[in-house]
């Protein structure tokens, strides 16, 4: 009995203990459990990946909607600004037209006032000249009443 024999006996005893304790089935069972756990983790990873893709698609859709809404807001603001600018221009034109009409009215009034003033001055000068001419012609005493009546009549008709 040499060392080889005892080594062989130890090996056989080792294998007997291993089979008695059912190590191969436990190892197989552990490997199967590990494989199932790995499959489960892979499936969860796939589900998470799909969920991430769906969330990404949802966020991209929301971003596009937000961009479109922003474009609509900018377009509405531009339209509103254009409308305000158009309204302001129209108001300015109306204001200028009103001011021009008022200035023309004032000019026409000043012109008619000046014409009336010139006529009044001309009437006064004509009355004074007539009075002097009549007074010079009728230097007599009874014609004074006639002269005053004539001057009053001339003033009435010229005004």
From TrEMBL:
<comment type="function">
    <text>F(1)F(0) ATP synthase produces ATP from ADP in the presence of a proton or sodium gradient. F-type ATPases consist of two structural domains, F(1) containing the extramembraneous catalytic core and F(0) containing the membrane proton channel, linked together by a central stalk and a peripheral stalk. During catalysis, ATP synthesis in the catalytic domain of F(1) is coupled via a rotary mechanism of the central stalk subunits to proton translocation.</text>
</comment>
<comment type="subunit">
    <text>F-type ATPases have 2 components, F(1) - the catalytic core - and F(0) - the membrane proton channel. F(1) has five subunits: alpha(3), beta(3), gamma(1), delta(1), epsilon(1). F(0) has three main subunits: a(1), b(2) and c(10-14). The alpha and beta chains form an alternating ring which encloses part of the gamma chain. F(1) is attached to F(0) by a central stalk formed by the gamma and epsilon chains, while a peripheral stalk is formed by the delta and b chains.</text>
</comment>
<keyword id="KW-0812">Transmembrane</keyword>
<keyword id="KW-0066">ATP synthesis</keyword>
<comment type="similarity">
    <text>Belongs to the ATPase B chain family.</text>
</comment>
<keyword id="KW-0406">Ion transport</keyword>
<keyword id="KW-0375">Hydrogen ion transport</keyword>
<feature type="transmembrane region" description="Helical">
    <location>
        <begin position="6"/>
        <end position="21"/>
    </location>
</feature>
<keyword id="KW-0813">Transport</keyword>
<dbReference type="GO" id="GO:0045259">
    <property type="term" value="C:proton-transporting ATP synthase complex"/>
</dbReference>
<keyword id="KW-0472">Membrane</keyword>
<dbReference type="GO" id="GO:0005886">
    <property type="term" value="C:plasma membrane"/>
</dbReference>
<dbReference type="Pfam" id="PF00430">
    <property type="entry name" value="ATP-synt_B"/>
</dbReference>
<comment type="function">
    <text>Component of the F(0) channel, it forms part of the peripheral stalk, linking F(1) to F(0). The b'-subunit is a diverged and duplicated form of b found in plants and photosynthetic bacteria.</text>
</comment>
<keyword id="KW-1133">Transmembrane helix</keyword>
<dbReference type="InterPro" id="IPR050059">
    <property type="entry name" value="ATP_synthase_B_chain"/>
</dbReference>
<protein>
    <recommendedName>
        <fullName>ATP synthase subunit b</fullName>
    </recommendedName>
</protein>
<keyword id="KW-0175">Coiled coil</keyword>
<dbReference type="InterPro" id="IPR002146">
    <property type="entry name" value="ATP_synth_b/b'su_bac/chlpt"/>
</dbReference>
<keyword id="KW-1003">Cell membrane</keyword>
<keyword id="KW-0138">CF(0)</keyword>
<dbReference type="GO" id="GO:0046961">
    <property type="term" value="F:proton-transporting ATPase activity, rotational mechanism"/>
</dbReference>
<feature type="coiled-coil region">
    <location>
        <begin position="28"/>
        <end position="98"/>
    </location>
</feature>
<dbReference type="GO" id="GO:0046933">
    <property type="term" value="F:proton-transporting ATP synthase activity, rotational mechanism"/>
</dbReference>
